[in-house]
Amino acid sequence: MTLDPLAAYRWMRLTREVDETIRNLWLTGQGVGGTFNQRGHEAIAVGPALCLEPADVVAPMHRDLGAYLVRGMTPERLLAHQLGRETGPSRGRDANIHGCGDLDLNIIGFISHLPQSLPVAVGAAMAFKLRSEPRVAMTWTGDGGSITGLYAESLNLAALDQAPVVIIVENNQYAYSTPIEQHSANPDIAERSEALGVVAVEVDGNDIEAVHKASRKAVNRARNGGGPTVIVAETMRMLGHAIHDGFEYVPDHLLERWEARDPLTIFEQRAGEHGTTIDQLRAIDSDVAAEVKAALVVAQGSPFPDPATVTDGVWAG
After folding, report:
1. Quick check: 1 and 216 in contact, CB under 8 A?
2. Closest listed residue to residue 158, CA positions, set 80, 79, 226, 232
């Protein structure tokens, strides 16, 4: 599946527009719960998701808003979710991206602690293989998640079963407030992953074409019986861990260097290389802004859930 440049740009721009709208809702006291900014991660979420078929399964994490959108979660639903409305994916039971699963869209809801979504995705992939279904599972985790025991256990199991799973590791330099050189004795995530028996590749996480190319190869390999792949995508988290985090611990020079490598900026700088024009990109910007503005009106007009239904669909073990 080749990358359609204009479609890829539109998904990244839509991700940023929805994300900034959610952030503004929170900053103006309208949002419910917390939120996690996506800036700098648009290519990592959108590029891999565009490689999948409808029957494939994704288990995104809290900085993969683009994957939710590509898989069919509409801006209206995502904004309603942030506003605690009945029309959001959790029907008002949650108000941040932790509650954004939708199995009808083959989206497994995010499990807050990393990498707890990983064994769930591996399990789904093992089920696909057991049933001889040509389906792939894809999940995301962070550099901090890659040093956990569960990461090693999940990769070992996936390698043993040759499960059709693709794991994107977003190496955004910080696990909350801890830089990678302080939480990993060996910061080479690809090398550590290969030691567990999986194929691992490194890619520029801010270049959607590079991310898509690596993901397409990994998805095709998984679908054709080649087993799991880890894609280590290098990027930078441009704001704090969550909306409440001021990220004063991040050096200014690091943010400045990565700001120049913003995924949308890189795409725009290479517009001529992939047959697009700046005028086309500006038209997309305008269309997306209007779409999200209209979606916000719909979300704000949506009802809050009936308090009498608060326990409906809620399970406790």
Report:
1. yes
2. 226
The least confident of 21-30, 91-100, 102-111 is 91-100
310: in domain: no
Domain harbouring 45, CATH code: 3.40.50.970
> Which residues touch 190 (CB under 8 Å, ≥6 apart)?
200, 201, 202, 230, 232
Range of the domain at 162: 5-303
DSSP type of residue 107:
B
Q: Are 266 and 207 in contact (CB under 8 A)?
A: yes
Average pLDDT, the chain: 91
Query: Which residue type, as a one-letter code, is found at position 126?
Result: M
The DSSP bridge partners found for residue 137 are 57, 165
Would you state the pLDDT for residue 274? 87
Copy the structure tokens of residue 261. Answer: 């490598």
CA distances from 246 to 10, 238, 241, 250, 273 (A): 29, 11, 8, 9, 37
Q: Is residue 28 part of a domain?
A: yes
Domain count, the chain: 1
Q: What was the pLDDT predicted at 242?
A: 73
Whether the bond between 60 and the residue before it is cis, its omega within 30 degrees of 0, is no
Q: Is 264 inside a domain boundary?
A: yes
- Comparison of pLDDT for 284 and 113, the residue scoring more: 284
Task: Give me the count of residues in the chain.
Answer: 317
